[in-house]
Design a protein that fits this description.
The protein contains 5 helices and no strands. The chain has helices at residues 2-39, 41-56, 58-79, 84-106, 112-132. Helix 1 (2-39) runs antiparallel to helix 3 (58-79). The structure holds protoporphyrin IX containing FE (2 copies).
């Protein structure tokens, strides 16, 4: 039972992580394909709604990953014990969320912090892959 719960919580972290990186992809699609998207009313409405949720709740999804991480850690630690790859992925995730918070409070878009924040999003994907692989 705890095995399933631990796996589910790990999957929840990955799902929330996926929602946070959509922030980048919806903006990219919006920039590159704006003209095509606008051609179809339904596609335009659907895409705009998706983009609004993804951008507006980016911080919320990001902070929620920490909650899921904490639960995953508790379940896995008391079921299997310590995991080095898990601790590595968790360190990157915690740093990423702290950096996002820093960027948010600085209120300045762009700059070194955002470059780092984007780069660490990729590093986090690699760290998660190494952990679940
Ligand atoms: C970004 C952070 C993390 C993510 C996204 C994550 C995700 C996952 C996922 C999806 C699984 C299920 C994999 C599978 O069944 O094949 C898993 C398993 C596991 N995780 Fe994590 N995890 C993270 C951090 C941690 C931490 C901090 C620990 C420390 C205790 C940990 C310990 C484990 C253990 C022991 C397993 C079970 C491995 C096994 O089935 O043999 N994880 N994790
Ligand atoms: C799993 C955690 C997170 C990941 C993987 C992540 C990833 C990203 C990525 C890839 C971007 C670039 C989007 C673009 O190019 O415009 C971005 C932007 C941004 N992130 Fe995060 N982020 C995370 C958590 C957070 C948190 C917790 C906060 C704030 C509390 C935050 C605040 C921001 C801000 C302010 C931007 C600038 C663009 C915008 O406002 O949408 N991030 N994030």
């Amino acid at each position: 039972m705890f095995e399933d719960l631990g796996e589910f919580l790990g999957g929840t972290i990955i799902f929330l992580y996926g929602l946070t990186i959509l922030n980048f992809f919806v903006k990219w699609v919006n920039k590159k394909f704006r003209a095509q998207i606008k051609k179809n009313d339904l596609v335009f409405k659907g895409f705009s709604a998706l983009m609004k949720v993804v951008v507006k709740y980016h911080k919320v999804f990001g902070v929620m990953t920490i909650g899921a991480l904490l639960l995953h850690f508790l379940v896995q630690f008391f079921t299997y014990g310590f995991s080095l790859t898990g601790a590595m992925a968790a360190s990157v995730l915690i740093f990423q969320v702290a950096l996002g918070g820093y960027g948010f409070y600085r209120k300045k878009r762009g700059g070194l912090w955002l470059k780092l924040h984007r780069g660490i999003a990729v590093l986090l994907m690699i760290a998660i892959y190494l952990h679940v692989e």
